Every structure is written in structure tokens, then in C-alpha cells.
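Sequence only, no structure available. Ideas?
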Amino acid sequence: MRSELKTVTAVRLDKWLWAARFYKTRAIAKQMIDGGKVHYNGQRTKSSKNAEIGALIRLRQGFDEKEVIIMALSDQRGQAIVAQTLYQETEQSIQKRATNAETRRLQRLNNPIPDTKPDKKQRRQIVRFKQIQGDIE
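Reply:
I predicted one. C-alpha cells follow.
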């Protein structure tokens, strides 16, 4: 495979997100843009919007929200290493994702998952407890 991408002057936002490997297909990229999960320079946008170098994109992927600056344009999906050169994540975004990941990790530790499902007796206790809590509120 070639490691360099041809330079283009205009590329649709959904195509750029696909080429930069944020989403696996253009259809998913379009859904995310139309669903308001992608903001272009601080505003909701359409998938047909042309991406520009230097634009700030804020997008959600699962639990994470990333802010990236477009460094180069491409309409071809290439290798992951090459795709990473198309954008630069902001320092604030990296720090925010790290703190959110740490918070999620600590929440998992504070809320352990039981090894087994509750049996019949335990389920009845849970139902009684919820009924008592409902009466108090």
C-alpha cells in the first residue's frame, strides 16, 4: 500500500472523518453528523459540508469526546499511521479524556459486578427494599 495520500482541495466532512479513521464507514460518519455528535467549528453541521484545514472538529466516540484540528485533507482511507497525520488532537481534549477514563475506572472499582445472579430469595429481598425506598420518597 502507498503511505502517502494525494492532496485534495475540497472534501466532504463525512468522507474526511471516514478517511481519518474516526468511523468505519461513511454511512456511520453521516449518521453521527446528522445526529449532532459531530460539531464543526463549534456548530452542528451537515455531512456535505466541505472540510477545511485548520477547522476545529468536536466529535463523540462512545464515552469519549475528542477535539481535533484538521491538518490535512484526504478523500482516501489509508493506513492508520497516515490517517493520524490528517489531524491533531488538542491538549485540552487529551487531558479531558484521561480524567474521564480515570473516573470511569474508579466507578467500576466502587461498583463491583456480582459473580452470580441473585437467587429467588435475594430477588424478593431486592423487591422489598425497592418498595420500602419508594414509600420513603
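The mean pLDDT is 91.
Hope that gets you unstuck.
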